[in-house]
Design brief:
Residues 1-29 have a biased composition (Basic and acidic residues). The chain is an alpha/beta fold. It is built from 11 helices and 8 strands. The strands form 2 sheets. A 6-stranded parallel sheet has the order 3-2-1-5-4-6, sandwiched between helices.
């Protein structure tokens, strides 16, 4: 079964490479049809775009550095050595990328800590996340309690199993998120660990504002995004509406099944063609590990590179 899965992934990877090469050739062909003046204008646009992006990156980095001194503390506890498979570690690394990106997008970021950053998690992250050494975060192999030994009374572990519902955020508290991808194999583990360590716990007030399909367990990056947005907006309903994915909401799967049936046969047995807006392709930029939409600007950038090489 594993061998078949690896073969399928290899084929998909090869197909992506072929598609990228075809796209590159198409871009080069279009570029060759331009006049010298059009090429020069294109190059100037690309240079201006590059300068703008550098400015945005510098501004974001400045915000994150300021947050390390003055922002509220938000912690991802990665001290779950040996509890995740290789595939789950890969998913965790992706979630860390999205978490870092979400924190950098808000006006006033949090001071992000990665504690228990060691062993399998550290190896997977350093292998998978390009640009990780440039992240403006606090990374430590120390445990949560050791890292915050002088501020233990301020720790609040966020877990869906807590009996305490989080209402108002306290900037002096240190909110902790369990960095564990386990597909619900270890239910209640974070709550148990926090209780054994004498750490306060709290759960997000999700049920108060959003009706979910099942148990309110979210990915690491969704919890991080909810917290950083809440520190900036102070509106649970608005933040939860914006962050929680549709698949988590009650009635989503039933509606999706009904939609599929309609597309397949229609209510009267006729085929129904449904046209929807295309979802933008997304990529994790290697330099700052942030998520951006790929748009026409990328084509201009690529075209400018070709011009430089001619």
């Amino acid at each position: 079964m594993q061998e078949v899965k690896e073969q399928r992934k290899a084929k998909e990877k090869e197909a992506r490479k072929e598609k990228q090469e075809l796209r590159r050739k198409e871009q080069m062909h279009k570029l060759q049809l331009l006049t010298e003046e059009e090429r020069e204008n294109l190059k100037k646009q690309a240079q201006a775009l590059l300068q703008e992006r550098r400015g945005q990156h510098a501004s974001k980095r400045s915000k994150l550095e300021h947050a390390q001194q003055h922002g509220p503390d938000l912690v991802i506890d990665l001290d779950f050595e040996g509890l995740m498979s290789g595939s789950e570690l890969k998913h965790l690394c992706q979630q860390l990328c999205y978490s870092y990106s979400a924190n950098g997008r808000v006006a006033n970021p949090c001071h992000l800590h990665l504690v228990g950053f060691k062993g399998d998690v550290k190896e997977a992250a350093e292998r998978q996340i390009n640009g990780l050494p440039n992240w403006v975060v606090t990374k430590t192999q120390d445990s949560l309690l050791h890292h915050f030994s002088q501020r233990k009374d301020k720790l609040v572990y966020l877990t869906a199993d807590s009996e305490t519902e989080l209402d108002v955020l306290d900037a002096s508290s240190i909110y902790v998120i369990g960095g564990l991808v386990d597909h619900n194999r270890y239910k209640g583990l974070c709550q148990q660990r926090a209780q054994e360590a004498g750490i306060s716990t709290a759960r997000l007030p999700i049920k108060k504002f959003v009706e979910l399909e099942s148990r309110a367990v979210l990915t690491v990056n969704h919890v991080v995004q909810i917290m950083v947005e809440m520190f900036n907006r102070q509106d649970w309903k608005a933040v939860l509406d914006d962050v929680l994915p549709p698949r988590k909401r009650a009635g989503y799967h039933a509606a999706k099944t009904e939609s599929k049936m309609r597309r397949k046969g229609g209510e009267d047995g006729c085929r129904v063609d449904v046209i929807s807006d295309p979802t933008p392709c997304r990529t994790i930029r290697e330099d700052v590990a942030e998520v951006e939409e790929v748009d026409a600007a990328e084509v201009i950038d690529e075209a400018a590179k070709v011009v430089d090489n001619k």
